[in-house]
Amino acid sequence: MKMKKWLMTLTAMMLVTSLIAGCAGNNAGEKNKGNSMTEEGTSKSGKPVELTFWGDWGGEGQAQFETMVDAFNKSQTKIRVKYVLQQDMITKFLTAATSGGSPDVLFWDRWRTSLYAPKNVLHPIDEYMERDGIMRDDYYEESLKELSLGDKLYGLPLTVDARALFYNKKLLAEAGIEPPKTWDELADAAAKLTKWNGSKLEVAGFSLGDVGLFNMYLQQAGGQMITEDGKTNFNNEQGKQVLNYWDRLLNQDKVYKVGFEQGLGEGQDAFVTGKLAMQFTGPWMLSTYKKYGKDLEFGIVPPPAGPNGDKGSVMGGFGLVIPEGAKHKEESWEFIKWWLANKDNALLWAKTSLNIPGYKPALEDPFFKDDPLWQPFMETLDFAKVRPKHPGYSVMEGDALTPNLQLFQQNKQSIDDTLKKAQEQGDKLLKDNSEVK
Amino acid sequence: MASVRKLERHQARTAYLFITPTMLLFLVFTVIPVFMALYLSFTNYDVLSRKDWVGFDNYRRLLDDNLLWLTFRNVFLYAIVFVPFNIIISLSLGMLMNRAWRGVKLFRTLNYLPTLTSSVAAATVWIWLLHPEFGLVNGLLSYVGITGPAWVAQTETAMISIILVTLWQSVGSNMIIYLAGLQGVPEYLYESARLDGATKLDCFRFITWPQLRPTTFLVSTLSIIGALQLFDQAFVLTQGGPANVTKTPVYLIYQQGFNQLQMGYASAQAFVLAIAILIFSVINMRMTKAEESVI
Q1: Is A244 domain-assigned?
Q2: CA atoms within 13 A on the CB side of A121
Q3: Which terminus of chain B has a smaller tally of CB atoms within 10 A, N or C?
Q4: Looking at beta carbons, which residues of chain B come within 8 Å of A259?
Q5: What pTM does this model have?
Q6: B153 touches chain A (CB under 8 A)
Q7: Average pLDDT, integer, range A260-264
């Protein structure tokens, strides 16, 4: 009896609490509806349409985005954009895309397109492009490819990047070496620049710390990561050439030591402190390295060509997309067009953020054309290719290829075994993650 | 009699009132999600566009998911080393800090400090300490003529590094639990044992250790669960590398669910992990409860 009464009170309390919670939920829902109603209503009566723009760049990046948003808001009176920082943007978008809280414009890591576009959460922009006469030729075809699925385009590129060879001018001058243009020249230069003190590596000639760059080397050897029908394509002559080259650098010439750069923060960056003479990295490091001024004189050249003269680098970067759940798609497109299909604004973005803009006409500006640090990237971007558009690609690279390459780098696996195992495990992961729809 | 019962009832009522908010939160955020995840593990849920019943497909796929079983092997190896060391070190620290010498409070605080540090921040500092050329650890080793390894980058030492860092961070809080346990051991047991001529070792073997059995049970259960759910230190120190030797199930589940949007399959993986944790906890319970407590 005692128990029962208590159970009833407890149940009653739980019911009341859940009712309160339920009411709160409903209220919030209605409020939102009310807001969007009035928004639509006011847009007709001349008040501006409010757009939400989501991104996961905080700090400096947030300030750069806000510069662009402010400039857009000042340029016209019909649309007001607001930048909202979402630290965990993709996870947040997952729930927002289906529950109605979707933003109007989304900052987008382009490689995700192949995974998200099949799920109909992104809005195709082909019609807008055609209507407003935006030329596809004004963008790097590779970057558009990464934003497409089938014959539909889902956004425009905001930035483009690719890795090139950074070298320490002082160290090269001391050794009397010109910046390398081929694999052989790179290996020779690296060997000359390396300094050992007993078993301690003091200066590494060239960085082999990131095995994730295999893709880039494979292109330079004339290969490709994935076949047309979605299988790995590196257990072959080209793959062997890459690993033979790494073997030469790592084990014969000993220009690097595994783990050399791991855990060094910005202040101790091996390239900044002169402990690393050359490395492949991208334009995102420019502003960091420039800070050191006279203390770090560095130059950049396009990545050296492989044994048959093939050039290769991996193009990456971001874009802006319109989610399918956006309430004001027309206005979102106006904002994207203003930012990414207008020379002046694309250039303002470039100069504000020190990124290479996706809009090619902006690259004609002297800011890029005449700068010896930007110019090599322009050259590299002409031949750089985006990562394969397979939805399982990043998993294959991270869980099958990278682990085997690490075993190879630590001399625990032969070249043949490495490529064979990476192929077997990689093909399986590609297959398991190929189905998206 | 009647008034006593009334008081009891009043107390019970208040107690239920106090635990209701917690239980509600527990229900909404823990119990219900567990059942939802169980349901999702039988679907092809991707958060965005589909949630179709696929029967046992996800569980069948688990069978030849070599990577998942490799991550299980990794955390089992980790747990086998981590859990015993965790108990030995925190018990020794607890016994050391249980004495009444000058400055003992300072040492208790110092030993507890690592626990208060955010695991990500601590791991970041440790990467630097473990750097092969410029790190403090290899710097000290070089004084005695040893060329230290590239701790977190080499397959042989990566897991050892993670064990060291996680031990450093977790013995402090377990030391506190043991301290509480030690202070609950009645002094008269030791007194009468000494009268009977027991040595210090006998006292530990026949009084301290059996008396601490419930404490050891708590500490070992918590560290087994923690070990099998290892994620943040492993993620920051090695990103699961080199060569997948430090990749953990939780890392894989997160990747499968949030990066590959295969939430259904990720739920199935999570259930296997939950069952593994359950099995190990039951084994642990049997082992610690094998002998009855003295009192």
Answers
A1: yes
A2: 28
A3: N
A4: 131-132, 150-154
A5: 0.84
A6: yes
A7: 75
